[in-house]
Amino acid sequence: ESAMIDKPMPELSLPSLYDPDVMLTHDMFKGQVTLLNIFGSWCAACVQEHPTLMDIGQSGAVPIVGVDWRDTREAGMRWLARYEDPYDAVIFDEGSLLAIDLGVTGAPESFLIGKDGRIRYKHVGIITPELWREEIKPLVAVLNAEAGL
User: Fold this and answer.
1) pTM to 2 decimal places
2) CA separation for the pair 33, 62 (Å, rounded)
3) Which of 19, 21, 66, 122 pairs as cysteine with 2 (C-beta 3.0–4.6 A)?
4) Which residues, 6 or more positions from 122, have their beta carbon under 8 angstroms from its beta carbon?
């Protein structure tokens, strides 16, 4: 259980992985349920998780925002080019600014953000197809049914 559950997404203004001139902010999490996924090119478990994220992304069930953590821009882009990119946006968190605010201890870690911009769920470790099907996807449906802002 995370101390961040039911807390608002931390204030953030970090660059996009693909374009350092584009700043991504916490406002991107308001108005829709979003899956936030912490990953890095150095993370072996992230390779195992990645096919499931690709399936989720292709299903359109929930937007996915990636956080490339403790990485270089070049390595992160190379990794996503190699394994494909399931993300609707990728935040580049080279200095762990967002990761620290979220209490991230490793990768992969994932969060579900409600339409109100609050953190509603945290999972430490790999999202497996079973975890997606039995726990996260039903929660996405519940959060989508909640009133918006």
Assistant:
1) 0.95
2) 7
3) 122
4) 1, 2, 4, 5, 109, 110, 111
